[in-house]
Structure formats: structure tokens, C-alpha cells
Fold this protein.
Amino acid sequence: MRTKPFILTIASLVFAGLVWASAASAHCDSLDGPVAKAAVKSLKTGDFSHVQIWVGQEQEQELRDAYQRAKPAFEKGESARKLARRYFIESAIRLHRTAENQPYTGVKPADTPLPEDVEAAEKALKTGDIDPALDILNQAMRDEVSHWFQKALEARQDKNKSVEAGREWTDAYVKYVIYVHKLYKTIKAGPPHGVGE
């Protein structure tokens, strides 16, 4: 019977995913994140397209194969449903990370707190109001640039007192200017990755 080896395979993958889970993953990696929600919705509705959009064309067939393996088990008893759900969520998240050209580090637990900036970005999409997200970014930028600027100003006052003071000024100056430059370049560069790029 094929069901038993399938369930053992799913159990092995679930265990491997739990062992290697890491906090370094993106917010899409959580059990209550958008990829997991789309995977469960596809299993419940029988509509693969809910999760299909979260991967690139290169990962689509592998995700479709995982879906076709998980769907029959999902329709069986509660135990098989849980394993099929977890297997398909892990497959979807792993392939989503591949589409982003990012490492898969496992599935984070549900209710993993989001960083403030990610939470603000998500909320902006829900409400249609970008201002709170911009406020967080503007405040962080203002605080950090001001910090490095102030250090450079303070060091400049004593730069001619000694070689050591001159080096402290040079260090503060370089850190300030490089920080502003890298911040600007990061802003102008846009997102470092997407899905399927």
C-alpha cells in the first residue's frame, strides 16, 4: 500500500524541517505566513493556483507534484491530513525560498513576531495607507544618520590635537559618509530579490 510509505516520507521531511528551522528565515517561512496560508487554501479548495503564485515557473512542477501527493492524504483521516498539510506547507515554503534565490532554513512556528518594518509593510498593503510604514523608515533613517553625523561632528572638533584624535575623526568621518552612501545606494537599488527572478 502506497499510503504508509508516503506518510513515513512526510514524517521524515517534517522532522528534518523542524530540526533545521532557523530564525534567519523570512516572514514567508512561518506556519501562519502567506505561503503556508496559500498552501492550506489550495489543499482545502482543490485549487492549486492559490499556492502556485508563490513560486516561479522553474519550481512550479515540483510544487504541483507535492500537491498531487499531499491532496489524497489530506482527504483521509485527521492524522494523514496533518502530515499532508505539514508536508505541503514545507514544500511550498522551500520552493518559494528557492524562487527568491534564498536559502530554505525550515518553517518557523505560527505567531513568530514580525520585525516592526515587515509588520508595517504588511499593514500598509491591507489598509492601503503607506504613511505608517514610511514613518518607521524615516524615523530609523533619521536616528541612525543623526547618530553617525553627531559622532563625526564631535570627533572633528579635536582632530588636530593629536594623531590619535585625527584618526578618531577619520574613522568617524568615514563611517558617517559610508553609512549615508550605502543607505542611499540600498534605497536606489530596490529589492534584492523577488520570486522567479
